[in-house]
Amino acid sequence: MRRLEKAIHEARRQADVVMVSIHSHEMKGENKALPAQFIEIAARNCIDAGADAVIGHGPHILRGIEVYRGKPIFYSLGNFIFHNETVTTLPADFYEKYGLDSRHNVADALDKRSDNNTKGLGVNPLVWESVIAKWNMKENNVASISLHPIELGFGLPRYSRGWPTLSGNQHILEKLQKLSQPYGTNIKIEKGIGVIQL
């Protein structure tokens, strides 16, 4: 945390806007949609150190949004582009892990890992939806945040999914509303867009 705060102090002297990116899979209990407590503490410490926003990612799904001291903390924006199943090569240990050898190819290995697309990230619909967050600044402060839902092709073949498309799926915003309520964040849904007024 001290190294991160030091980096934020330096960035604050070098930039108009300082955003911190935190990659974390850790969760509270067994609920992947809730960040571990140490992530909440660390994110708030980043704002206290001078960051204008904290952008979390890692669990591959959306997590709540907190507005702390007038600054947004996105505990996870999920996936924006997700192509982990369109690689053209894999290391030897990947094949070994699934009992495959040099006679097998990438498609064989991906089928084995996902048990022919019946388990893993590919079958979790939450992995394939997110939002694009856009905010307006006024005098170096965030004035409003708009949240535009996107989908990445859940249910499509693996070679077709993973590209973001704007979506009118209000369900994504409603889930984000519920995840953000414990942080005191009120998201209004207006014409298919989530809006946070600060």
TrEMBL record:
Residues in coiled coil: none
TM annotation in the entry: none
InterPro entries from the UniProt entry: Capsule_synth_CapA (IPR019079), CW_Biosynth-Accessory (IPR052169), Metallo-depent_PP-like (IPR029052)
Domain Capsule synthesis protein CapA: 3-83
Pfam families: PGA_cap
Family: Belongs to the CapA family.
This protein's name: CapA family protein
